[in-house]
């Protein structure tokens, strides 16, 4: 009974913290460049490859893509983006944040996710400032740990890792930000700091389900 009670408290605490923060696309084959100018070929089945003759280190840009086991999907009411997910790992959750359109939790109830969409095109650097300003509403020492450019199903973005505390509980947020002319998306995953390293690969894989 005690473990169940503590589990509920953990879940409610994470949901409380999240409350403070506030059409399927079909791609034709195209090419894009990463930050070092390497050419990446994007295929219409969401696979990719570097162009012939390209030599890369592999750590310059994080490439994310939809995978075959992402058999479930939710489509934004705006018609501008779709999220695919693996039902063996993730399930939809109640959306308690008025700024969020979708919420998810993993099947172990240890990792959580909110998806927020803004119809305005907001530069990613400005969005990073917004993330920290909101986080500092609950922890004045909230700060960014890391930031990495990425490409998710053909859309450029950035993955921002930042941390904030609610009393003695440290939460790490792992947020994918993408911005295009038709809007800006925050695809934000979060968990306890003690669980983050174990869940990070799962979060990263789930980010590949965003088609914007």
Annotate the secondary structure layout.
Layout: H1 2-20, E1 30-33, E2 39-42, E3 48-50, E4 62-64, E5 72-75, E6 82-85, E7 90-92, E8 102-106, E9 112-118, H2 124-135, E10 143-152, E11 155-166, E12 169-180, E13 183-192, H3 193-207, E14 210-211
Parallel strand pairs: 4-10
Antiparallel strand pairs: 1-2, 2-3, 5-6, 6-14, 7-8, 8-9, 9-13, 10-11, 11-12, 12-13
Concise account of the structure shown:
With 212 residues, this protein is of the alpha+beta class. The protein is 22% helix and 39% strand. Strand 8 and strand 9 form a beta hairpin.
Give a structural overview.
With 212 residues, the protein is of the alpha+beta class. It has one domain (2-22, 60-211): Mog1/PsbP, alpha/beta/alpha sandwich (Protein Transport Mog1p, Chain A). The chain is 22% helix and 39% strand. It is built from three helices and 14 strands. The strands form three sheets. The chain has an eight-stranded mixed β-sheet with strand order 4-10-11-12-13-9-8-7, sandwiched between helices.
**SSE order, as H and E?**
HEEEEEEEEEHEEEEHE
Computed structural class: alpha+beta
Overall body shape: globular
Instruction: Give the N-to-C terminal Cα separation.
Output: 43 Å
Total of DSSP H or I helical runs spanning 4+ residues: 3
Main sheet strand line-up: 4-10-11-12-13-9-8-7
- CATH topology, which one? Protein Transport Mog1p, Chain A
Quantity of strands, as a count:
14
Task: Give the helix level as a range of percent.
Answer: 10-25%
Largest sheet, in brief, is: 8 strands, mixed
Q: What value does the Rg take, in angstroms?
A: 17 Å
- What average pLDDT do the residues reach? 83
Instruction: Determine and state the CATH class.
Output: Alpha Beta
Number of structural domains: 1
The unreliable regions are: 1-6, 22-28
Q: What share of the residues does DSSP label as strand, in percent?
A: 35-45%
CATH superfamily placement: Mog1/PsbP, alpha/beta/alpha sandwich
CATH architecture: 3-Layer(aba) Sandwich
Determine the oligomeric state from the structure: single chain
